[in-house]
Amino acid sequence: MSLKITEECINCDVCEPECPNKAIYQGAEIYEINPELCTQCIGHYDEPQCQIVCPVACIDLDTEYPESDEDLLAKYKRIWSK
Fold it and tell me: How does residue 62 score in pLDDT terms, banded at 50, 70 and 90?
């Protein structure tokens, strides 16, 4: 499933450049993640890079977008086949 950034975000700017799919962007108040582009780094890395670098651990699973690892890999292939 996609990830989401919670309201604990401190806008530190470290997650955005780490996202290989460019799914992270500055929202109205905090950074946000586009669920259409988030693959939890599947296809690129073994674990989500944004979660690794986040100093306040404010990036969680987005239960509104349930996806299996296979779904995320298919999304990765769709994104990068363009």
Answer: very high
- The DSSP line for the chain is --EEE-TT----SSSGGG-TT--EEE-SSSEEE-TTT--TTTTT-SS-HHHHH-TT--EEE-TTS---HHHHHHHHHHHHT-
- Indicate the residue type of 72: L
The whole-angstrom separation of Cα 10 and Cα 63 is: 22
Q: What tokens does 8 get?
A: 């604990």
Check which CATH number belongs to the domain holding 26 and give it: 3.30.70.20
d(CA 55, CA 76): 26
Q: State which residues form the domain around 68.
A: 3-80
Four-residue CA torsion sign, 70, 72, 74, 77: negative
Contact predicate 5/32, CB 8 Å: yes
